[in-house]
Amino acid sequence: MATYKSLSASLNWPTGQPPSRTTTLITGTLSAEGSILIPHFTNTTFEAQTPVILISFRHTYNHYMHIMRKMGVHTNRHNLQFVNALAKGDFSNLPPATRPHFTLNEWPEFFQWLSEQKPSMVILDGVCGLLDVGHNVDSVLQFIGSCQRIVEEKAKDEYAALVVNVFLDEFSELLVRSLVRRAHFLFSFEGLASGASSGVSGQLTVVPGHLFCQLQKAFSPALLHYRVSDTSVQFFSPGQSNT
């Protein structure tokens, strides 16, 4: 995962992880997917001997396993727990290697399950999908807030953090604005105004969220260009070569 080192260096995060007991919000668009950070945060968390819980409202377990393998992230059912929030049903007939660890049906049951897990990096991918199935913004914020409280409680003794990846468009704009007020860091992926090229896929802006002041730490905002290939992501300063 050496391709992410320049990103970690720009943020002065030596381990590549967000600080413990924080919430990181990632926003992306059709032309600039924020999910490209999921392999990075997963891998750096594994390297720190901390497990990951990935809760997806977008894709199946197999999708993430395929992406992780291509990106050189070595996962197993012990260090990565997958929560299926995409579809309800009985998945016990699936092969054990591809079976979700938990399926999100009723929220109280899920929060109870989450509270019983080891301190982890919890990643919510595509949580704005709750809007698409009829939940209002307040309901989605309540769900994320409950996850946030559980993670913060876990982080009292060991590393734990929350990462929330959402798709930004006119339908999720109100949700995103509300989440910025509930986050310590904001990673915003955008396409270039001139359009993507063979050398640059888009740009990433990293700024403090509204809760950053609670950390009482220094942090320098960052603006980086990046290039996505089939097996890697390269970050570099605007105007510099990505080779």
Describe the protein's architecture and organization:
By secondary structure, this protein is an alpha/beta fold. It contains seven helices and ten strands. It has a ten-stranded mixed sheet with strand order 4-3-2-5-6-1-7-8-9-10, with helices on both faces. Helix 4 (107-115) runs parallel beside helix 6 (137-154). The longest helix is centred in the middle third of the chain and has 18 residues, at 137-154.
**For the CA atoms, what is the radius of gyration?**
17 Å
Overall strand count: 10
User: End-to-end span in angstroms?
Assistant: 15 Å
The chain-level mean pLDDT equals: 91
The biggest beta sheet, please?
Answer: 10 strands, mixed
User: SS-based structural class?
Assistant: alpha/beta
Listing every helix as H and every strand as E from the N terminus to the C terminus, the arrangement reads HEHEHEEHEHHEHEEEE
Number of alpha- plus pi-helical segments: 7
List low-confidence stretches: none
